[in-house]
Amino acid sequence: MTAQxxxxxxxxxxxxxxxxxxxxxxxxxxxxxFVQFGFEAIETPAVEKLSTLTDxxxxxxxxxxxxxxxxxxxLDAASQEIYDAxxxxxxxxxxxxxxxxxxxxxxxxxxxxxxxxxxxxxxxRYQMQPVWRADRPQKGRYREFWQCDADIVGSTSTYGDVExxxxxxxxxxNLKLPVIIRFNNRQIFDCILQNILNDEESFRFxxxxxxxxxxxxxxxxxxxxxxxxxxxDIWMKLLEANGKETNAEKLAALNLLFPTIPLELMKELEGNxxxxxxxxxxxxxxxxxxxxxxxxxxxxxxxxxxQPEMLPDGFSVGSIGGGGRYDKLTEMFGFEGGQGxxxxxxxDRIYDVMEATDLFQNYMEDNRNILFCVMDTENMxxxxxxxKSLRDMGLNTELYPKALKLRKQLDYANAKKIxxxxxxxQNEILNKTVMMKDLxxxxxxxxxxxxxxxxxxxx
Amino acid sequence: MTAQxxxxxxxxxxxxxxxxxxxxxxxxxxxxxFVQFGFEAIETPAVEKLSTLTDxxxxxxxxxxxxxxxxxxxLDAASQEIYDAxxxxxxxxxxxxxxxxxxxxxxxxxxxxxxxxxxxxxxxRYQMQPVWRADRPQKGRYREFWQCDADIVGSTSTYGDVExxxxxxxxxxNLKLPVIIRFNNRQIFDCILQNILNDEESFRFxxxxxxxxxxxxxxxxxxxxxxxxxxxDIWMKLLEANGKETNAEKLAALNLLFPTIPLELMKELEGNxxxxxxxxxxxxxxxxxxxxxxxxxxxxxxxxxxQPEMLPDGFSVGSIGGGGRYDKLTEMFGFEGGQGxxxxxxxDRIYDVMEATDLFQNYMEDNRNILFCVMDTENMxxxxxxxKSLRDMGLNTELYPKALKLRKQLDYANAKKIxxxxxxxQNEILNKTVMMKDLxxxxxxxxxxxxxxxxxxxx
Lengths: 459, 459
Prior knowledge:
The structure is a homodimer.
Chain A: H1 17-36, E1 40-41, E2 47-49, H2 50-53, H3 58-63, E3 67-68, H4 80-85, H5 88-95, E4 98-100, H6 105-114, E5 123-132, E6 144-153, H7 159-174, E7 179-185, H8 186-193, H9 199-209, H10 212-215, H11 218-227, H12 229-242, H13 247-257, H14 263-275, E8 283-286, E9 297-306, E10 321-326, E11 340-346, H15 347-356, E12 370-374, H16 380-392, E13 397-399, H17 406-415, E14 420-424, H18 426-431, E15 433-438, E16 444-448, H19 452-458
Parallel strand pairs in A: 1-5, 7-8, 12-13, 12-14
Antiparallel strand pairs in A: 2-4, 3-4, 5-6, 6-11, 7-9, 9-10, 10-11, 14-15, 15-16
Helix pairs in contact in A: 1-7, 1-15, 9-11, 11-12, 12-13, 13-14
């Protein structure tokens, strides 16, 4: 075996210790809130049947699926006719029957459909796992990245809608990352477009306003040229209502501008507003320009972005969370009871924002780790025993495995951000003492072995 | 889209909420020990280059790699000559350049080699991630399963060897799963086979004794027929030394029976024995019959099995942990400084053993979750606010999202093992009270809203 220069495939990443600490902090914060709200964890396999994954994400999505080659003599399954065509798409169908998870939503729908008879509905599940997409890698876009999803399946109650707004609110409050939690309701579009635009025009309308964040006023022009003036008029009214100060004022304005919105929907929207309230610097903002693309949402829709004023100049990031209510998620797997509502947290983007805004420095963990530094090889066994007995008392300890120069051992402690060095030379062994050094403050103190736990706790 | 009957590929699994709670318990226990011993987390991507993975696990291993089809028109890369051969192996080399991680050791070697200039050695890393093998699925053998590894890379100190024995000791003590931690040293074989068996015979010797667990005394016969009587003689002496009562007695017997073992190695083995001690019902057992297959180990080797008397009749499981010291792990990637020692925990098998022995019942979490059950739709908003305010005080609360019959709501609480029901009807709203019911004890008590937190804490 000759040595090879190691490298990673495009778009995937290693996470070293420093990065992992921060990622774990984010994931633990999200998970604690999930649990507090009554969500329970499930995990699904990375590898799914391609029949489960294909036709669920549109044609573009299908092309981004990672397909796994069948094992063994996979070409045996290819008829000579198919083989001779030498067509990648056709051949892949017979030589690759499995693929990598593309999101956590389709696996959830599959899971719920398969296990419907064992599940107590409403099923509140969370899931935090990587997903894979063969997208062109670029800044902030990876081929392997993590999603953290919470869904309430098997319930049409709008209390779920509100609960997920509050869940976003709590998570970002706990992360100390101020956000705008935008929400809207797809049914508003249904009401106000009905009888004015036909289905195709409505579809195009949603497509265009979904780009408002990126293209701004150009939306007007495209609405006029691609659809008609009526579409522009609707859009102008939506913007007018959206321009009001408070959520309640927005809703009142919407009601006035679009009298066709049924009373029932208005009452639901008002009821939701009554229950939510901003926390910390977060803003929960009703936003009639929010459309959430062409996805399967049928009711409330969510999108979370960082408060723009907190981002450094030139730093841009899309949404760091999103979701909505769906009616037919599990129908593709033959189960009719899968109405629900769900949200997703984009771990990798949340990480990028917190890193760019120096937010992690608020979370330097309470580090009371100890490194035992021994000056003489013959004293290592005694130091090892001492180190172990402290560990049995619940302290985080390790022994530097060789009696090298102290400088070298302290370098190791500093690189690992270990807080305390317990230095042991010949005298210390004789007197059953140790020189404890706080590497943060520089303070150091000779003490009996029995005093170490108290010193560390007080540290 | 027509409805399809959903199913999973062979050998992979979903984990529902009840199973996830237990898996998380095991993983948290392992992780806490890793951290206490000074190990730091890394994660590597599921998807690696096939050039990184192949030729590392032997020919059989290569066949068990899951290969990922290149995206787009992957057949473009296949020359007509290669294509016309219609040979799965040859074609796969040009149409699949990525594969799924097969273990956590080769990715570690790649990671260390790629990041050698940023890493402070000795590098103590842990990693808990799934791996994939296209093995024939059977009871206890999965195609997607989890490994939890701790390694110390860049150190030849035998304090690391001992530390990992202690790490096994602590983890299984904390899991309350009594185990035998068997260990041996590959160098013993080097010394006692040297000048008696040639390389090929030595190789076969290791191969055969590795099967001792499974085939017992048949090892003797095979040693005689496949190698020679000298091999049998060595084996009989090893068994004799192994039959002694204590580790110290075994070592003394070994020394007597094989005078060729150098003093230095004997001193090292004695030194290790001096430092370790059993904890709880665990046994740390020097075992000269342990060979750990044909792997890359060069010093200490480890293998963990459950104490046989604790297993139910007819329940068999292989090792639930293993590892050892290696000299050349990173050489395949051109880095010479990768000497180290590592151990692995088999999460799925540990789970299976704990489930089969009813061990999880020791860990029913301290569950103080509350379900708010509202009797009248018009009181839901007030109940939602109350539920939220308790959550802000740190309690785990959720609101049943519809004012259904109480029985139905309590069924939900029971299915999710929620401990407390907070029942709210018309009277309770008027008086700002709640009927708190402890679903475990059956006890129930009417109380003011303000009293709930104290009641739950005391519960």
